[in-house]
Design brief:
With 336 residues, the chain is an alpha/beta fold. The protein has 10 helices and 11 strands. It has helices at residues 84-87, 110-118, 143-150, 181-188, 208-215, 246-258, 260-264, 276-284, 289-304, 317-333; strands spanning 7-10, 32-34, 45-49, 66-71, 92-95, 102-103, 130-133, 156-159, 193-197, 219-223, 238-239. It has a 6-stranded parallel beta sheet. Strands 8-7-9-10-11 form a 5-stranded parallel beta sheet, with helices on both faces. The model has no long low-confidence stretch (mean pLDDT 93).
Length: 336
């Protein structure tokens, strides 16, 4: 392993794609990135995308090497992240959790907030007061049932791919050309409320579902992390969990539509400075997570000094090694 320029290896894919190391911003410290698994022995740090845990079993760990557990997914959906027996194999974490060694939240950077505050709020032209987008079938939060119940008391337009076996199907389709995220945001902007429903409820797990409606002047109705208020301005969203039933929530949403002054109070954050608690969070993510990972690895490698001697190990055992190698062979020969 080189001592002057640390090598950081992304051992697994990120879901179905290799990590694009060429797109990682240049860091203020010298570091080399690679996805070439044949360089495992010389890597100073090895990053494993935990949702791709099936690709980890054949990894050897070399003396002095730092293993990094990386995930922006909820531990409710990927139980390995909450399993101490699995996580003990890693030296560092890079996740959405506040306590991670490298914090990688969905929280947009400061310039995004300035752009959101300065953008024009679109007229609320849709008949239904609320909209929701759902593409994944993951539902540890009970969001499908929540939407079904809420829809009995207030109009909710539903977009997005969803489990076709589910009882609740999308009732709206994008009209005209679908430009992806731009079209989604423009659609959200036409509604008073956007149901921002996480696929699971876990502390710190606040995704783009909260931030998309804030960007376009629509009020999020949020179901998710109990500490979501730490990542947004005060009085900028409605906490769905604070209502006893979906019917009670629907009655409150109807009330806000009928009293514009009270509704607009949820948009008042756009004309104020960002609160100190949010500014402090934004300072932590001013540079990207991989940038901060490079700085941390560079420092730890410098503190480590000379590479310790010794043999490599198979942390997950020979059975996991053979199973992973068999799956790699099958994938390669299946043309995947």
């Amino acid at each position: 392993m080189p001592s002057n320029v640390p090598l950081i290896l992304f051992y697994t894919r990120a879901f179905k794609k290799p990590v694009d190391v060429a797109a990682i911003p240049q860091c203020c410290v010298p570091v080399e990135w690679t996805t070439d698994r044949s360089r495992l022995a010389e890597a100073d740090a090895v990053v494993f995308h935990i949702p791709n845990a099936r690709e980890i079993g054949d990894a050897r760990k070399y003396p002095g090497q730092l293993w990094v557990a990386w995930s922006m997914e909820s531990f409710e959906n990927y139980a390995w992240q909450a399993d101490p027996r699995f996580m003990r194999h890693f030296d560092l974490t890079m996740t959405y959790e506040f306590g991670a060694d490298v914090w990688e939240p969905y929280l947009p950077k400061a310039e995004w907030w300035e752009a959101a505050r300065g953008s024009v709020i679109a007229p609320k032209t849709e008949v239904a007061p609320a909209v929701t987008f759902q593409s994944s079938k993951l539902d540890k939060s009970g969001r499908a049932g929540f939407v079904a119940e809420l829809s009995k008391s207030i109009g909710v337009d539903r977009y997005g791919r969803f489990n076709r076996r589910a009882k609740l199907q999308p009732n709206r389709q994008i009209e005209g050309p679908d430009l992806g995220r731009q079209t989604k945001l423009e659609t959200i902007g036409r509604y008073h409320f956007c149901l921002a429903l996480e696929n699971s409820i876990a502390p710190d797990y606040v995704t783009e579902k909260m931030f998309d409606p804030l960007a376009v002047g629509t009020v999020p109705v949020y179901l998710g992390a109990p500490n979501a208020a730490e990542l947004v301005p005060e009085n900028s969203y409605i906490d769905a969990s604070s209502f006893g039933t979906p019917a009670e929530l629907a009655a409150y949403l109807h009330h806000l539509v009928e009293t514009p002054q009270e509704y607009e109070a949820y948009l008042a954050w756009r004309s104020k400075p960002l609160p100190d608690h949010l500014v402090r969070r934004l300072e932590l993510v001013a540079t990207g997570a991989k940038y901060r990972l490079a700085e941390l690895v560079h420092r730890l490698v410098a503190e480590r000094g000379e590479v310790p001697s010794g043999r490599s190990s198979l942390p997950f055992g020979w059975m996991a090694f053979l199973k992973t190698r068999r799956e790699r062979w099958w994938m390669a020969h299946a043309g995947r």
